[in-house]
Each structure stands twice: as C-alpha cells, then as structure tokens.
C-alpha cells in the first residue's frame, strides 16, 4: 500500500501536476483528496489514470546484494562499491570477476589479498574506460 502511494507521488511529480490539479484528479476518481485516505483498489485506479496520462514508472535497477564483510575489510569493499557505481555495474559483475580470477564467486569468502586484487582489477578497468573517453 505504501508503495502505491509512493508511486502516485512520483507520478504527480513526473506529470508536473500542481497540488490543486492532483487533489482534483484524486477527488474525481476516488472521492478522496488524499492518496492515504484511498483504499488500495482506488490507489491502483489513480495510478492507472496517471499511466493513461503518460506516466511511465521506471523499474528500480537491481544492483545486487552488497557483501557483508568485517570492519577491517569494509574500506576495501567501499572502494569496490564506488568503482562499480562509477562504472554503472552491479555487484554481480564483481562476483563474476572474483569467480574468474580466484574461482570463488562469493566475495565474502575472498581472502584479504584476493579482495585487494579484485579492487585493483576494478581500478585498471576504470582507467581503461577513462582512456576510451
């Protein structure tokens, strides 16, 4: 239910509706002036109407699960995460690299040395991408 309300507010902003227009539409469709007052079926009707008006909700990109490591390895993992984000790559990319480099697809199971080498490989990749620009 909260997810529908969130989507409705995203749609309101995407369609650039003022508060008056938004509340008029809600009232016309549901008889309510707030999405929180609406039942889930009514919220879905509002969202369907917004889609008819041109709102296309974007699906959230799944970047995978961030590995859970000890505090001592957190700094290296933060650097890996920054490199992946900069390259717009998911955690699965780093897992694939770890599997290829060390025959170990689970980042949490890498040794400190392997984790550092994975980070260094991502730095090399970032430099290559930079050189291509």
Describe this structure in words.
Pfam families: GemA (PF06252). Residues 50-74 are annotated as: Disordered. This is Regulatory protein GemA. It comes from Limnobaculum zhutongyuii. It is a single chain. The protein folds into two domains: 2-52; 71-132, no CATH class. The longest helix has 21 residues, at 112-132. By secondary structure, the protein is mainly alpha-helical. It has helices at residues 2-14, 19-30, 40-52, 74-86, 91-102, 112-132.
Summary of the model, kept short:
This protein is mainly α and 133 residues long. The chain has 6 helices and no strands.
The number of helical runs is 6
Determine the N-to-C terminus distance. Answer: 44 Å
Secondary structural class: mainly alpha
Strand residue percentage: under 5%
Mean pLDDT: 87
- Count of the separate structural domains: 2
Helix content: 55-70%
The ordered string of helix (H) and strand (E) elements is HHHHHH
Poorly predicted tracts of residues: none
